[in-house]
Amino acid sequence: MNVSIIGGGTIGSSMAIPIRKAGFRVRVTRRNTSSLRELEEYGIEVSTDNATSAGWAEIVIFALKPVDLIPQISKIREHLQGKIVISMAAAVPMSAISRSVGSAYVVRAMTNIASRVGSGFTPYSLISEDAEKIKLTEKVLGALGRAERVEERYMDALTALSGSGPAYILTIIEAMMYGGLKVGLPRDLALRASYQTVMGAAKLLAESGEHPSALKEKVITPGGTTIDGIFELEEGRVRTAIMKAIEASTQKAIKISEAMFMQ
Ligand SMILES: NC(=O)c1ccc[n+]([C@@H]2O[C@H](COP(=O)([O-])OP(=O)(O)OC[C@H]3O[C@@H](n4cnc5c(N)ncnc54)[C@H](OP(=O)(O)O)[C@@H]3O)[C@@H](O)[C@H]2O)c1
């Protein structure tokens, strides 16, 4: 099974390696391919020719900027007929993709950069029911980590929460590391302690099935050290700040979509 990724930038090239490792033949395109050489070490083909690459594949993934998506689909439309076309673009609704693509099977997905190491979260929506095509879509997107079918109306919010989410979590990890530096830890040790703690807390949460508050309570012993840290976080309104970040980012996705498709 051949998969072409049109647009080998941050997300396109992140997706290529896990999809290749899942057993698909993969080709990645962009206009300037010099930064894609490392992909060739994984047996991934690199090209500047979108039309030929789309023609070669059964599944065509578009990882272009939202503004480039519809114009580029239109240019190679004849090579997309009957295929699975997956858009990774924020803010572009399936109805618009479907109008420009003709008779292809349209999927709208939203992954994040953790897909590079097979730990992405990839919600996706489908234009229609087709058991065979759904199975293939799940196999490709499942290679990126956890893939979950959702209603399209949740996509802008998920773009903000999990698509942009690594940037928020990396900010938190950086802040934890700086906290470590402030109290005299060596930089490497502070960084490792920070990211391993974030990974561990997330794994515990996922595997225990417990609510975050319940797990948090287990760390906070009365009169202990953690409650003093939590008190500072509450005073800094950290939870409010993160909630506002996700709300603002969702509003931006909605605004971009409206600017492109509601004139
Ligand atoms: N970055 C993230 O963390 C993230 C997360 C979730 C979703 N997304 C979505 O993923 C999409 C891509 O974002 P990105 O961050 O990966 O952007 P990006 O790094 O700018 O990648 C876009 C790529 O498209 C290539 N490109 C532009 N025109 C092309 C054409 N005509 N033919 C082939 N390739 C072309 C560009 O390379 P050349 O200039 O060399 O052609 C560039 O490498 C966006 O729609 C975004 O909403 C991104």
Tell how many strands the DSSP assignment holds: 8
- Topology-level CATH name of the largest domain: Rossmann fold
Order of helices and strands: EHEHEHEHEHEEHEHHHHHH
Q: Structural class, from secondary structure content?
A: alpha/beta
Give the gist of this structure.
The chain has 263 residues and is of the alpha/beta class.
Question: Care to describe what's here?
Answer:
This protein has two domains: 2-155, 3-Layer(aba) Sandwich (Rossmann fold); 165-257, ProC C-terminal domain-like fold. The chain is 55% helix and 14% strand. It has twelve helices and eight strands. The protein has helices spanning 10-21, 37-40, 50-56, 66-75, 94-101, 131-142, 155-163, 165-182, 187-208, 212-219, 226-235, 238-261, and strands at residues 2-6, 25-29, 45-47, 59-62, 84-87, 105-109, 120-126, 145-149. Strands 3-2-1-4-5-6-7-8 form an eight-stranded mixed β-sheet, with helices on both faces. Helix 4 (66-75) packs parallel to helix 5 (94-101). NADP nicotinamide-adenine-dinucleotide phosphate is lined by residues 6-12, 29-32, 50, 63-66, 68, 72, 88-90, 110-113, 163.
Secondary structure layout:
Layout (H helix, E strand, L loop, with lengths): L1 E5 L3 H12 L3 E5 L7 H4 L4 E3 L2 H7 L2 E4 L3 H10 L8 E4 L6 H8 L3 E5 L10 E7 L4 H12 L2 E5 L5 H9 L1 H18 L4 H22 L3 H8 L6 H10 L2 H24 L2
Parallel strand pairs: 1-2, 1-4, 2-3, 4-5, 5-6, 7-8
Antiparallel strand pairs: 6-7
Helix pairs in contact: 4-5, 7-12, 8-9
The structure holds NADP nicotinamide-adenine-dinucleotide phosphate (NAP).
The site of NADP nicotinamide-adenine-dinucleotide phosphate (NAP) has 26 residues, from helix 1 and helix 4.
